[in-house]
């Protein structure tokens, strides 16, 4: 499982605050991810009884919140984890 997902699920990374108010969804976001990451996200969605979209949106919002709090070092740390995960 992806390291960030493991940290989030273990409660070690960040507290997610999601959909605290009315959020108008008025645009789409589309990008490609590795097959394994998608499979891991689908497992999370199944375990949580949520849609894949809901899980992805919550994780993106949580990551963005952490970035706003910590700044560029947060993203650099995530990207360095990604490089290590790919090389293993």
What report would you give on this structure?
With 88 residues, the protein is an all-alpha fold. The chain has helices spanning 3-9, 35-48, 52-70, 72-87. The model has no long low-confidence stretch (mean pLDDT 83). It has four helices and no strands. The chain has a domain at 50-88. 64% of the residues lie in helices and 0% in strands.
Task: Itemize the secondary structure elements and their pairings.
Blueprint (H helix, E strand, L loop, with lengths): L2 H7 L25 H14 L3 H19 L1 H16 L1
Helix pairs in contact: 2-3
Provide tags for this entry.
88 residues; 0% strand; mainly alpha; 4 helices; single chain
How much is the average pLDDT?
83
Query: Cα-atom Rg, whole angstroms?
Result: 14 Å
Distance between the termini: 13 Å
Which stretches are poorly predicted, pLDDT < 50 over at least 5 residues? none
Q: Quick one: how many beta strands? A: 0
Strand content: under 5%
Q: Total number of helical segments? A: 4
Helical amount: 55-70%
Reported for the largest beta sheet, the result is: none
Could you state the order of secondary-structure elements as H and E? HHHH
* Helix-strand category: mainly alpha
Query: So what's the overall shape?
Result: globular
């Amino acid at each position: 499982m992806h390291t960030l997902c493991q940290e989030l699920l273990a409660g070690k990374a960040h507290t997610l605050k999601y959909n605290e108010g009315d959020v108008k969804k008025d645009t789409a976001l589309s990008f490609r991810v590795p097959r394994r990451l998608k499979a891991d996200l689908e497992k999370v969605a199944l375990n949580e009884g949520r849609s894949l979209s809901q899980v992805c949106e919550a994780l993106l919002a949580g990551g963005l919140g952490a970035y706003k709090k910590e700044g560029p070092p947060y993203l650099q740390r995530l990207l360095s984890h990604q490089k290590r995960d790919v090389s293993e």
